[in-house]
Amino acid sequence: MDMQRQILELKEQVLSRESLPVDISRYDSIVVAGMGGSGVTSLILSDLYQEKPVFSVMGYDLPKFVDKKSLFIAVSYSGNTEETLSCFEQALERGCDAVAITSGGKLAERCSDRIMVPAGIQPRSALGYMVMPLINTFLGLTDADRKRISDAIAGMFRRENEIRTHARRIVERKMLPVFIGDTSSRGVVTRWRTQINENSKLIAYSCFLPEANHNDTVWMANRSWPEKDITVLSGGEPRIEKRIRAMEKLTGLTFNRISHSGGVLERNFAWIAYGDMLSYHIAVERGVDPEDVSVLTRLKNEIA
Question: Which residues are catalytic?
Fold first, then answer.
């Protein structure tokens, strides 16, 4: 299946009713371990769910606070991610309840409480399969909620001509893609950046407000190379909007705004759809294969 078709499948993936076999009232904290396209699920969750602490682990070791009062969730599409397996074993040693979201591999063999997702696609293209069990579990979504998310994604995909034009501008002018979120879209801008890295084979930068006004605004105001294509993904909070207007004035730049109506769930997933399709069209404009990440396979072989 080509990458564009994999991207378009997101609108079907988010209709999944899968949820984790846990009672979340039993836990003081939620710890999600995952890397790359699997790991971004924890960031998306933490932007949306704030009833209990959600801690993202993108490395080999669990933080010291993790104990039997923590729910541990391992997310690894392949099921063989070295760092995630390390965290899984540590969670068991500490007496944590552990669940997994995976398509197979060692994680599926070792974890009995698991959700199996379809195999055979790029891990980053299985985002809906991997994130929906988290969102269904912690936000208690209904079929109607999932349908609204799917419709929002489909609506964004219908804006493909706009997205293609955006991609062409970045490539033709050799611009640095910069993505600015707010505290409700940190996972989204991270997803945009990593999709540009893997699909488009380009460097990109992401940050979020208001933190970016304490550091990143300085380099953005530098008019020298590189020319920047800045996209802001903001939920419209008045204090954040005031900061965006001030940044545009001080940097002399006009930021892209990706409009979308609806609640935070619909908005964030529609933005994810835009970013995924943008990364695909940048790859097409550059003449590179958006699916090829063979260098990551070679890296794994080097450290094996």
Answer: 198, 214, 300
pTM: predicted TM-score of the whole model, two decimal places: 0.96
Secondary structure element (H or E) that encloses residue 228, with its range: strand 228-232
CA–CA separation, 228 vs 243, rounded Å? Answer: 18
* Calpha distance 280→283 (Å, rounded): 5
- Domains of the chain (ranges; CATH) run 20-139 (3.40.50.10490), 146-286 (3.40.50.10490)
- Could you give the CA distance from residue 50 to residue 48 in angstroms, rounded to a whole number? 7
Q: Please give the span between the terminal C-alpha atoms of the chain, in angstroms, as a whole number.
A: 29
pLDDT surpasses 90 at 262: no
CA distances to 27, 98, 123, 215, 225 from 72, rounded to whole Å, are 10, 5, 21, 34, 44
- Report how far Cα 272 is from the mean position of its chain's Cα atoms: 7
Mean pLDDT of all residues in 296-303? 93
